[in-house]
Amino acid sequence: MTSTFAPCPIERITGVWKFHRPSLRVSEARSLPGHLVHFIASGGYELTVSGRTRDVSAGMVIYYHDSENVLWRGKRSAVTFYSVGFLADIMPPPPERRIMSLPSLKRDFASLYRHSLLPEGNERIFLLYAGLSRILAGIARGNAHTVIARDNEWWAVENRIRGEKRYRMSVPEILGHYAKSYATLNRACRKATGRSIAKRLRELCLEEAKGLLAYSALSVTEIADHLGYSGIHEFSRDFKRHCGVPPTRYASGAVKRRFSS
To answer: CATH number of the domain at 12-141, please?
Structure first.
């Protein structure tokens, strides 16, 4: 008797980290492109992800997907957490299960981090991919708690952009999809992000570019094409205006930062 198996959806692990953050720290950032999973080992803080806010504490798993806005407000205790990033285009994130209490996964995350410190070689690779697969299986089995629903209609627009990877959608296209007036949707966008629709669309696109330049193996030309630019020159011009440096220099600087951290 023969059996057939679906291919493993994990294409590439982009990083495994262990972080320590001091108490009362406030910071704002964007999650990485692809999938990013955190496990809170100790401490707790208030987390806002793309318009949703919740307290998180030790034993919780946080699942980010495709460059989300993240606001961290620390409490009186310091925080230690593990983090793993990976690419898996054919695998969707847990539907509305983005923050979950799964203390049983602490040993798996600690083990994954230890394996990431091993010397380069096949043993390290096999242990890393097996460890991540075990974590994802635990998340799939877990009884996840749904996070607070978003109450601003602009976030549905961003979900669609990220889900369809259409980072160069125009304002008229978006208005057509949602049958909203410009004034209504622009007001929602400003309330949610503090920016106009056009500025927010540009920011989404170029922040995605930053993540791809730092953590993917794609060339600058491939990233420009992936984002919907007609050519590399247009992409390079927009990126330099947004980030202050050309994409090639940003990519080389990101590599240096990763290897020196």
So the answer is: 2.60.120.10
- Answer yes or no: pTM beyond 0.85: no
Sorted by where each begins, the domain ranges of the chain are 12-141, 154-260
Q: Which of 182, 183, 204 is nearest to 193 (CA)?
A: 204
Q: Environment class of residue 180 by beta-carbon count within 10 Å: exposed (0-12), middle (13-18) or buried (19+)?
A: middle
Two structure tokens written together for 42:
């100790």
Q: Does domain 154-260 have CATH number 1.10.10.60?
A: yes
pLDDT tens per residue across all 261 residues of the chain: 455 666 788 888 988 999 999 988 888 777 777 889 999 999 999 998 867 788 999 999 999 887 777 888 999 899 999 999 998 877 777 655 688 899 999 999 999 999 999 999 999 999 999 999 999 999 888 754 433 334 567 877 877 787 777 888 889 988 888 778 899 999 988 887 788 999 989 888 888 888 788 777 788 999 999 888 988 999 999 999 988 899 998 887 654 444 333
